Known about the structure:
Blueprint: H1 3-8, H2 12-42, H3 54-80, H4 87-104, H5 114-139, H6 145-152, H7 154-173, H8 178-195
Helix pairs in contact: 2-3, 2-5, 2-7, 2-8, 3-5, 4-5, 4-8
Amino acid sequence: TNLFHLLIHAPKAFWQIGLVQFFCWFAFLYMWNYTAGAIAENVWGVDPMNTTSSEYQSAGNWVGILFAIQAIGSILWAMVLPMFRKIKVGYSLSLLLGAIGFVSTFFIHNQYLLFVSFILIGCGWAAMLAMPFAMLTNALSGNSIGAYLGLFNCTICLPQIIAALLGGVILSLVGGNQAMMLVVSGVSLLLGAVAVFLIREKTK
């Protein structure tokens, strides 16, 4: 079947969930790109452009630990998500918690308090990996489910391409402050949390 024909006739949920995906993956690309510089500046007090300094290397090592904490938070929250009776409530709340986690990194200057931020970010990550495909599969019917799921992967890569293209512009707008880029991530995830309620889901 012609893929463009499928896109034209895609169920509304495909595009509605895709909008949420856009904000989510836009946010996480900036987390991967700017966390090391943000932590180096906010916690270690070093110029994030001086990547060869020992302080920056220490910050980079700590980011690895923070990402592990995020993974733990994601696993724990994934066990909570099935307890929500309304999937959109669980989805939106998860993204809201992730947004709070992102924004909080700007105000935290203690390396251990950042554990809380990244546990919250892990809540958003858990929902991003589980909810979209579950909701989309529920909205699809017929023989083209596999094709739609394949096309839906574009809602993961395209937002990151756009975020990468805009990264330099946004960074200049926030004065080159890499910690502010995590605030931008938080705002993007908050928009995703709001967009969840635009989804018209089917119940099976």
